[in-house]
Design a protein that fits this description.
With about 325 residues, the chain is α/β, with parallel strands linked by helices. The protein contains eleven helices and eight strands. Strands 2-1-3-8-7-4-5-6 form an eight-stranded parallel sheet, with helices on both faces.
C-alpha cells in the first residue's frame, strides 16, 4: 500500500494542473464507414484493463460511459449515414465540454474517425485556442463532392476547418457544428495514403503535413517538434491529438479497417505521445479505428495492446520510469517489495 501511494505521489509531481484527472468517453460508433466491428472497441479496450492501467499511474479516472444518441433528420448526397453521424457527434461534443468543465483532460475511445468531429468541436467550444495533431495514415480531408466512398470518417478535417467551409453544401442536422478551427492549427503526422484532391488542398493551403518519408528523414522526435513549432509557435495552445490506430504499421496494429503498409512503429507512436505529454498542454486524446472483428484473437489482442500503450504514453507513462520525488531518494529498496 505504501509503495502504491508513493507511485501516486510521483505521478502527481509530474505535469500540469489537470494531468492527474482524466475523463473517459466511449463512442461505440461505426456509421462513418462501412465495416462492422469498430463500435465494439471502447468496451473491449476497457475490458483489456485500460482504466486500471491509468489508475496505477495515480491518475484520477472518471468513466463517463458511452455516448448514446438519436439519429437526426439529415441527408446529403454522398455522405453515408449523415443522420447518425450528426446525432452522435453532437452528443459527443456536449460530453467533451462536460468533461472539460469538470476540470479533467479528455480521453475519447472510438469508434471510427468521424467521431473526431464531435470531440474536437467540444474542445474548441471549451477553449478556442486549440491546435490539432492528426496522427493517421490518411488525411481525412475529403468533402462529399470529392470522396469516392461517401464515408464520413474520411471527411472530419474538412468539416472542422473554417477555410474549407465554402466547399460544403448546407448540411442538415449539423447546424450545431460551425467550423471554428483554422487549418493553420492542424498538423498531420504519418501520412502515406492521400487522395489527389486531399494533396491539392494540403498544397493550396500550406497545411503542415509530415508523411512517413519525413519521419524516415528526420525521425519522429524532430517531426513532432517541427509540427508543434508550426501550429503552436508560442507554446500556448491547448493540444488535441486525434490518433487513428492505422497510423501504426499493420504489423503493429492489424485489426483496423483501412490498414496501409509502411506506417509508424509502436515505438515511434509511443515516443510521439511521450513528447506531446511533456509539453504539458496535451489536454485531449482520441484513439480510433480499432476493429475487433478484423483478424484473429492474436491480431485483435496485439492491436488493443498497442492502443493502450499509446494512451498510457499520452497521459504520462514513461518508459524510463517515473521520477522519484524529493524526500524518498534514500528509501531502502525493500520498501517497494
Amino acid at each position: 500500500m505504501f509503495a502504491r501511494s508513493v507511485i501516486r505521489t510521483i505521478f502527481r509531481s509530474v505535469g500540469c494542473r489537470n494531468y492527474g484527472k482524466v475523463g473517459l468517453v466511449g463512442v461505440p460508433f461505426e456509421k462513418g464507414q462501412k465495416k462492422s466491428g469498430v463500435a465494439q472497441a471502447p468496451d473491449m479496450i476497457r475490458a483489456a484493463g485500460l482504466v486500471n492501467e491509468l489508475k496505477s499511474l495515480g491518475i484520477d479516472v472518471k468513466d463517463f460511459g458511452n455516448v448514446e444518441y438519436e439519429a437526426l433528420d439529415a441527408s446529403v448526397h454522398n455522405m453515408t449515414h449523415l443522420d447518425h453521424v450528426a446525432g452522435c457527434t453532437e452528443k459527443l461534443s456536449q460530453m467533451v465540454q462536460r468533461v472539460f468543465t469538470e476540470g479533467r483532460n479528455v480521453l475519447t475511445i472510438g469508434g471510427d474517425h468521424s467521431i473526431g468531429i464531435g470531440s474536437i468541436d467540444g474542445h474548441v467550444k471549451t477553449n478556442r485556442n486549440v491546435a490539432i495533431l492528426w496522427i493517421d495514415a490518411h488525411a481525412d480531408l475529403n468533402t462529399n463532392k470529392t470522396s469516392e466512398s461517401g464515408n464520413v470518417h474520411g471527411m472530419p478535417v474538412a468539416l472542422l476547418t473554417s477555410e474549407l467551409a465554402d466547399y460544403w453544401p448546407y448540411l442538415p442536422g449539423m447546424d450545431w457544428q460551425q467550423p471554428m478551427l483554422s487549418i493553420r492549427n492542424v498538423a498531420y503526422i504519418g501520412l502515406r495514403s492521400v487522395d489527389r484532391y486531399e494533396r491539392l488542398v494540403i498544397e493550396k493551403f500550406g497545411i503542415t503535413a509530415f508523411g512517413m518519408e519525413d519521419v524516415e528523414r528526420y525521425g519522429i522526435h524532430d517531426v513532432i517538434h517541427m509540427a508543434l513549432r508550426k501550429i503552436d509557435p508560442d507554446n500556448n495552445k491547448s493540444l488535441h491529438v486525434s490518433f487513428d490506430i492505422d497510423a501504426l504499421d499493420p504489423l503493429e496494429a492489424p485489426s483496423t479497417g483501412t490498414p496501409v503498409r509502411g506506417g509508424l512503429s509502436l515505438r515511434e507512436g509511443i515516443h510521439a505521445m511521450e513528447e506531446l505529454f511533456r509539453t504539458h498542454r496535451l489536454n485531449a486524446l482520441d484513439l480510433v479505428e480499432v476493429n475487433p472483428k478484423i483478424g484473429d484473437k492474436y491480431c485483435v489482442d496485439l492491436t488493443i495492446s498497442a492502443a493502450i500503450h499509446i494512451i498510457q504514453a499520452g497521459f504520462g507513462y514513461t518508459r524510463r520510469g517515473l521520477k522519484v520525488p524529493d524526500g524518498v531518494t534514500d528509501m531502502p529498496l525493500q520498501t517497494f517489495r
